[in-house]
Amino acid sequence: MCQFFGVSRAAYYRWVKHIEQPDPDCERMELVQAAYLQSRQTYGYRRVTLALHQQGVHMNHKAVLRLMQKLGLQSIARKRKVSHKLAAMDYDLHYPNRLNRDFRATGPNQKWVTDITYIRTQQGWAYLSVIKDLFDGFIVAHHLDDQNSVALVKRTLYTALNEKVTDGLLLHSDRGFQYTSLPYASLIQQYKILPSMSRPANCWDNAPMENFFSHLKEEALRHLSHPSFDDLSQAVDDYVYFYNYHRIQLKTKQTPYQLRCLST
């Protein structure tokens, strides 16, 4: 066996002797894990170190970090959004406000608006990415994820591109880091989509998307008390279907789907 794996017999027996010995970190790992669990899994290595000191256990913070990594422990507390800002600074690809609050369209798939909203669940924050057609209000794509990422936006756009896209489609967004990223820029360039962005700190430039999120939260999510991620996902899917196929719009007296059918 040693010859087959290319190791010496001496090295093999040293390894056998080593694995038969008890882990020297065993006792300290139990103390670290106990302090971590007492914090409801919210402490990082610095707070775990302080908690151990309060219990009379003096351990170096670097040792605590090593032991937590060995145990696979990390804080479940929500991370700061610094990385999002850094991502935006790294790419910094901004586009003019081509939509310019002209929310009218003469046919489907000419003008889309998109955005992401945050929704709290039992497991933490969930992020809903949506694309809406300005012609009839039809929600052409939506995705829910536990990560606010460029990948979430790309999945939503890939789903929307199953529609028959009109040449020169305009896609309007805010200035979130996902929409200023290089992968997003490459995708819209690949499909010859014309990008548009709201002006800084101006939510009214994307009012139709904000309007949909308002309806969603008032008509569907307000009635859910601290839902699980799966319950939220089902509620969002159900409401989007209702919104597209059954919810009558006061301005048109029809549903988005009926308007879409009339245009074809």
Any overview of this molecule?
- The protein has 264 residues and is α/β, with parallel strands linked by helices.
- It has two domains: 2-71, no CATH class; 82-263, Ribonuclease H-like superfamily/Ribonuclease H (Nucleotidyltransferase, domain 5, 2-Layer Sandwich).
- Helices cover 45% and strands 14% of the residues.
- The protein has eleven helices and five strands.
- The chain has a five-stranded mixed β-sheet.
- Helix 3 crosses helix 4 (45-54) and helix 3 (26-38) crosses helix 5.
The proportion of residues in beta strands is: 5-15%
CATH class of the largest domain: Alpha Beta
The assigned CATH architecture of the largest domain is 2-Layer Sandwich
The N- and C-terminal alpha carbons lie at a distance of 71 Å
pLDDT averaged over residues: 87
- What is the fourth-level CATH superfamily of the largest domain? Ribonuclease H-like superfamily/Ribonuclease H
Reported for the largest beta sheet, the result is: 5 strands, mixed
| CATH structural fold name of the largest domain | Nucleotidyltransferase, domain 5
Overall geometry comes to elongated
